[in-house]
Every structure is written in structure tokens, then in C-alpha cells.
Design a protein that fits this description.
Largest sheet: 7 strands, mixed
Helix content: 40-55%
Number of strands: 9
Oligomer: single chain
CATH architecture of the domain at 4-163 and 257-321: 2-Layer Sandwich
CATH class of the domain at 4-163 and 257-321: Alpha Beta
CATH topology of the domain at 4-163 and 257-321: Nucleotidyltransferase, domain 5
Shape: globular
Strand order of the largest sheet: 5-2-1-6-9-8-7
Radius of gyration: 20 Å
Length: 326
Amino acid sequence: MIAMSSRTVLVGIDEAGYGPILGPLVVSAAAFDVPASAAESCLWEMLKASVSSTRSTRRSKIPILDSKKLFCRSNGLTKLERSVLAVMTAWRGMPPSLHGLSRLVCPDLLVKMGEYPWYRDADPQLPREAEAGGVRLAGSLLRRDLDAHSIGCAGLWSEVLPERHYNRLVNSTQNKAVVLSGLTLRLMQRVADAHPDRELRFSIDKQGAREAYGPLLLRAFEDRRLRVLEEGPEYSAYQLTGGRGCWRVSFSQGGESRHLLVALASLISKYIRELLMECFNTYWSSHVPELKPTAGYYQDGLRFLKDIESHRRRLGIAREWLVRQR
């Protein structure tokens, strides 16, 4: 039996939907439990039999890379969905629907969805576009590859802020960067709660132009002592000790290219956001004939709002339920 002290939980955290004016903000964490001797190893290299860092790959491998490089709206959801659901399959099995996915990674989302007419009754079946048999095959291959290297999937978590929930937090903080940081810190706590006695190594995509994250970490985790390992424009790293387990926390520019788990978190966040945007667009299309769907980004978001304005008023939906601030 392998001793607990000889294991390390590696964690990647990334977001999707920080910039748009429509739709939710999603932040996710992905964690693998690895032998301590492999904590500094490249997971893409270790798992090269089942995963790839490039978009174009042979059918059985799972592309895990920055969601902006893997997903193109004009080409559909297939590649993004296949990667996310294959990892889900290797972890807990393929969820049958959006609600099933939510119960696994963000249970409180189901309560939040109930407050919005475009999410309330929506539960799209999964997969949407990817071929289910291919997803299961890729997931089985990943499961065997993980087992062969004594790696376990230690968990997948997401924090989702639909539109009005996002506005409430932005109004209370007057800063959307603070909202993003808060979701990130909440994910860190959820991971720590799931693995209280383990060494944790968090790799987080850099958030804006911030270089110093120490005060943020100290306020969030008051029972821990902070040591600054490095701070700079592209990379900052910290050690948090005390309590149960030792943490190393790093923030890096382009984290999706440096760490497989940050890339995976990026994919999960993007996939959940795209599923919710599908629900959003389906709802409004049912009320507005020939409405062109939107991804929610600024210019097209303004076009979409103009196209639905009279129907929004007729339905009695306030703008703060629909349009994100800042």
C-alpha cells in the first residue's frame, strides 16, 4: 500500500466567460492524485498514450489544451464535448444530461437555474454532438493510462455564476476581478475540503495584470502561514503551511499551455458555459422568430439585445436578469 505522504494532488483552475455581457461566468478546477515523485513531471508526456496537447490527433486520444484553441463555434461542439465527457467518463461515468453533469461538479447550479426562465426547464441530454461510443472508448483508454501510472482523478469542480447572480456580486464588490478571485478561492477550499490531509499543488491561470497574490491568499486562508516563493509579471508562486496539508499555489501567464490540468479546467468551464448558452439561445429563439444565436460577447451581445428588446419587455424580464454589468 502506498503511504499518503508519497502522494500529491495536482490541481488546475481556469475560467470561461469572464469577458461577455450575456451568459454565465464559469470557473473550474481539475485535480489528479499522482505519486509525489511525479509531481514535477509533464502530464501530457506521462499520459501520451491517451491524451494530446494538440487539436488534431488520432481518434482514440483526447485533446486537452486551451479551450480557445480546441473550440471554434463555427465548427460545432464536437471536439470540446468529446474531451470533457471522455474525462468525465474516466472519473465517474458519462453524465446523461446537463443536470447530471451539474450534480457532479456544481450541485448548487440547479437551484440557481430555477430562477431564470431560459435555464429553469432546460436539461439537454448529453452528448449533444459527440458520438457516445467514441467518448466511452476514449474515456476507457484514459482510465487505463491513469491506472498504469498510478494516477487517480481526484475530482472535478465548477463554480457557475448566471447573469443576475454575477450582477449581485459585482454590485457588492464594485470589481469583477474580485468576483473571479472569489470563485477561484472557493474552488481551492472545495478541493482542500475533499483532500484535507494531502499536499496540494494549485496551478492557476494568471488573473489580469496582478503580480502579488499573497494578501488575497492570506485573507482567504487565515489559518495558514504564507511564504512568497516568486512574484513577477508572468509567474507568481506561494507556499501555504499550517492547518492540514501543505499547499503550493502558482499563478502563471498562459497556464493552459504549461499545465494539462489548467487546460482541462479551461475545457470544462467552456463546455458548461456553452451548454448554458444553448439553453439561453433556445429560450429566446422560441419567442423571437429567426433570431440569430449569440455567444454573448460585447458587439454581438448588443445586436442580440436589440433583436429581443420588444420581447423582453413583453415577457417582463428586467435587464439586470439578462445583461451582465462591467
